[in-house]
Structure formats: C-alpha cells, structure tokens
C-alpha cells in the first residue's frame, strides 16, 4: 500500500541555522521557508537524490511543533511521510486494520499541495506517520 519515502520531518528550534547547516556544511540544496498556516508550521525542504528532509518550525503559539520542541528543545525527528496512490482507500484500509487517523480523518492539503493524513504514533512503534497522495 505505501509507496516511496517522501520525506523525513525534523523539528528545529532555529530554522535559519538548520537550513544553513544543511546548505553550508552538508552541501545540500535547500529550499526557501514556506509558511503552512493550516498546519501551524513553517517548512523548509532539503532536496536529496532519493528523498527529502523537511525542517519544521512553529508558526504561531498554538503550533503542534511548539509542544514538540518544549519536550525536545534541541529538536529531533518528528515524522516520516510515505506516498500513497489513493489516500481515501489507504485511510479506509488502515482504519479497518485498527490504525487511528489523527484529526477528523479527512485529508488536508499539505506543504506539497497534495492531500495528507497523519496516523497515530502509538499504532506505529512510536512514530508519527504522514501519508501523502501522489
């Protein structure tokens, strides 16, 4: 059901410093910051030959990333995103298998302009999973 790894998301306490580290130290191609108000984050994508890294920074005081950084002040891996061909079919299959979909269960539009859903980390070995329709 799941396709390729689309990205690994890392919450960071300083978006500019993290972006510079990937660009200057690791020599990666780093995109521009992009505000995602519906998700309460500012994101920066780092392009790699086989996937992407998504840097996440809180956008607003009620951002879910703010709480993550309160618990992990140095930042850390927040979630992994996998591609699916049909997000509704994937959601329905996962729910039938007992997986919990976060929020209303209806897809939202993600940072790539495509429908996304998140799956409860307690159902996937403590890892928050994002599904993105390709």
UniProtKB/TrEMBL annotation:
VOC domain: from which residue to which, for each copy? 4-134
Q: Which CDD domains match?
A: MMCE
Q: Gene3D superfamilies from the xrefs?
A: 2,3-Dihydroxybiphenyl 1,2-Dioxygenase, domain 1 (3.10.180.10)
GO function terms (MF aspect): metal ion binding; methylmalonyl-CoA epimerase activity
Q: Which reaction does it catalyse?
A: (R)-methylmalonyl-CoA = (S)-methylmalonyl-CoA
**Any one Gene Ontology biological process term?**
L-methylmalonyl-CoA metabolic process
Q: Which domain of life is it from?
A: Bacteria
EC annotation from Swiss-Prot or TrEMBL: 5.1.99.1
Q: Which UniProt key words apply to this protein?
A: Cobalt, Isomerase, Metal-binding
Q: What does the sequence similarity comment in the record state about its family?
A: Belongs to the methylmalonyl-CoA epimerase family.
Q: What is this protein called?
A: methylmalonyl-CoA epimerase
Q: Which organism is it from?
A: Paracoccus caeni
Gene name tied to this protein: mce
